[in-house]
Write a structure and sequence with these properties.
Order of helices and strands of chain B: HHHHHHHHHHHH
Oligomer: heterodimer
Largest sheet of chain A: none
Number of strands of chain A: 0
Largest sheet of chain B: none
Structural class of chain A: mainly alpha
Number of strands of chain B: 0
Distance between the termini of chain A: 11 Å
Helix content of chain A: over 70%
CATH superfamily of chain B: MetI-like
Radius of gyration of chain B: 23 Å
Largest interface: A-B, 51 and 46 residues
CATH class of chain B: Mainly Alpha
Radius of gyration of chain A: 23 Å
Structural class of chain B: mainly alpha
Number of domains of chain B: 1
CATH topology of chain B: MetI-like fold
Shape of chain A: flat
Strand content of chain A: under 5%
Helix content of chain B: over 70%
Number of helices of chain B: 12
Chain lengths: 312, 295
């Protein structure tokens, strides 16, 4: 098993390097002079020289990449074109806000999705099953940015129950909760659909195995059978949960844009609007790193739960 | 197990020898959900294609006096937008853009992805490692983020949207194509074909593709709804089609500020995206069931 863990850790390194190459390439994808892409228009000569040194624009591309990577590894993501603040500071603050939102929506989606999926599997073909299938299809089909706008129209504009925008400035926990409700619901829709689907099919797989029949034949009450089924389908469910959590963090861009939630997505949106390439690069690199590490963690946890995986 | 299956299937085969595709078509014809989804999609596609003839107004002709007219008002069945442009006309024209922006990347991914995936799966060795490891890199990003990263760097515009979304979907199709190919290549009939002297091209053309294209097609069809949501999402962020062109995501974005004045009209473009994406999802579900492909 430790061999597997070691191999899995090593495999994450090329993936991370690959991601960093894509992020590095973004400067060169941007139309026009790469210096213009990472410098404000009114930059002074000295600043341009500093940037040229940072990126080594006069050197060949692979060398430029290594110089850039060296700085990134030390936590230097460059400076924002718009605010001249180090990108790392902006990303750090935004990431904290995004994590809170990703967590709250994941809790909602995972809880509800697992419950619906299991119930659907145990009531296969009945009304509840049909309902959960409908929820699953709607969840994966709905453009969540539109769902967010609908939530705002209903709960902020029409009913005036909840605030439409932003995070609370004053530190009151009640206000904070009121602000996070709508983005949480909007962001939970997709994973809710996906998880309901996966849990249902995983539970059905387990239910069709012979040991379940044996448990029932033994006279076990259905609540206890339920427990066994859940336990046995859990490794499969866990993979999806891990992936979905990663998607929540990276996929919140559109929802954050709708609700002006001050997270990474909002920062990204702002960066796109201002064509602030260093911020764009910084946010995407940090999120991708997070995503890769999360996948790694899920794989490892899974191996611990189910040692059979390591042998494959 | 094999014996049992043969026993069950034998009588069916004896009475009704149907070709695979006829069986699939027969199953699709009996699946009510899929039929409804298919009809809705046909309507959407037709109305997008026929937009120039169906639309009562020019999509960018507005009137300052008639801003945000309500749904059901005189002359404008679906109301008008924040610049007084007819919503029905813009939705019809917008559908063209959204469908093109959503379908093209999946089409590109289907063609390019099958090619690369089958190549990687069949040839194996260094070629496989090279192709598959390159594709893995793109898996370091959630789809939305990758699309935004590339579009964000390239800048707005339909062409850039198509490029960035193709980059999102090609690696996914390659993965499916590769694993399907590896699976089929291991089967005995391929070995038999090879032993009887069939060339690489003949094997790929006659034996491999026939068995691999099904799963790839079904997988690609599941990606269409995501592609549409992402394409509209990119223009919602200001990265897709540029104004004054009509596109559902862009319309949603510009109408967003008007929800305090008129709640119903701004909801319409999103509803269009939702219905289209759901129809594609239901259709691909039906297709997968009818073709008996798991996953």
């Amino acid at each position: 098993m430790w061999v597997y863990v070691g191999r899995r850790l090593l495999l994450a390194i090329p993936t991370l390097l690959g991601a960093s190459i894509i992020v590095f390439a973004m400067v060169h994808l941007a139309p026009g002079d790469p210096i213009a892409a990472v410098m404000p228009a009114e930059a002074s000569k000295a600043e341009i020289e500093a940037i040229k040194r940072t990126y080594g624009f006069d050197k060949p591309l692979p060398v430029q990449y290594l110089i850039w990577l060296g700085r990134v590894v030390q936590g230097d993501l460059g400076k924002s074109l718009a605010t001249r603040r180090p990108v790392i500071l902006d990303v750090r603050d935004a990431l904290a806000n995004s994590l809170v939102l990703a967590l709250s929506s994941s809790v909602l989606a995972f809880g509800l999705g697992i419950a619906l999926g299991l119930l659907a599997a145990f009531r296969q073909g009945r009304v509840l099953d049909k309902l959960s299938s409908a929820i699953a299809v709607v969840g994966v089909s709905v453009p969540h940015y539109w769902a967010g706008i609908i939530l705002i129209i209903v709960f902020s504009v029409q009913l005036n129950w909840l605030p439409a925008m932003g995070a609370a400035n004053d530190p009151g926990i009640w206000e904070y909760l009121r602000h996070i409700v709508l983005p949480t619901v909007a962001l939970a829709l997709i994973p809710l659909g996906v998880i309901t689907r996966v849990v249902r099919s995983a539970a059905l797989d387990v239910l069709s195995q012979e040991f379940v029949l044996a448990l029932r034949a033994k006279g076990l009450v259905s609540r206890r059978v339920f427990k066994h089924v859940f336990k046995n389908s859990f490794p499969q469910i866990l993979t999806v949960l891990g992936l979905q959590f990663g998607f929540q963090l990276g996929g919140s861009v559109l929802v954050e844009a709708v609700f002006s939630w001050p997270g990474t997505g909002y920062l990204l949106n702002l960066a796109i609007f201002q064509r602030d390439i260093p911020v764009l690069q910084g946010v995407i690199l940090v999120l991708a790193t997070f995503f890769v590490l999360l996948n790694l963690a899920v794989d490892l946890v899974q191996t611990m739960i189910d040692p059979r995986i390591a042998r494959h | 197990m094999a014996v049992a299956t043969a026993l069950v299937e034998a009588p069916v085969l004896a009475t009704a020898p149907m070709s695979y595709w006829r069986t699939v078509a027969w199953r699709l014809g009996r699946d009510r959900t899929t039929l409804v989804a298919g009809s809705v999609l046909t309507l959407i596609v037709l109305s997008a294609v026929l937009a120039p003839w169906l639309a009562p107004y020019h999509p960018s002709a507005g009137s300052i006096r008639l801003r945000l007219a309500p749904v059901g008002g005189p002359g404008h069945i679906l109301g008008t937008d924040e610049q007084g442009r007819d919503m029905l006309s813009r939705l019809l024209w917008g559908g063209r853009m959204t469908l093109v922006a959503g379908l093209t990347p999946v089409l590109v991914a289907f063609v390019l992805g099958s090619g690369l995936g089958v190549l990687a799966g069949y040839v194996g060795g260094v070629t496989n490692t090279l192709i598959m490891r390159t594709m893995d890199i793109f898996y370091a990003f959630p789809a939305v983020l990758l699309a935004i990263a590339i579009s964000g760097a390239l800048g707005p515009g339909l062409a850039n949207t198509l490029i960035s979304l193709s980059i999102v979907f090609v690696p996914r199709v390659v993965r499916v194509a590769e694993s399907a190919t590896v699976q089929v290549t291991g089967l005995e009939y391929i070995a038999a074909a090879r032993a009887s002297g069939a060339g690489v091209r003949a094997i790929i053309r006659h034996h491999l593709l026939a068995n691999v294209l099904g799963p790839i097609l079904v997988f690609s069809s599941t990606q269409v709804s995501l592609s549409i949501i992402l394409a509209a999402g990119l223009s919602f962020l200001g990265l897709g089609v540029t104004p004054p062109a009509a596109e559902w995501g862009l319309m949603l974005n510009t109408l967003r500020q008007s929800i305090y004045v008129n709640a119903l009209v701004p909801a319409l473009p999103g509803l269009a995206i939702f219905v289209t994406s759901m129809a594609f999802n239901l259709l691909s579900d039906g297709l997968r069931d009818a073709m008996e492909i798991r996953g």
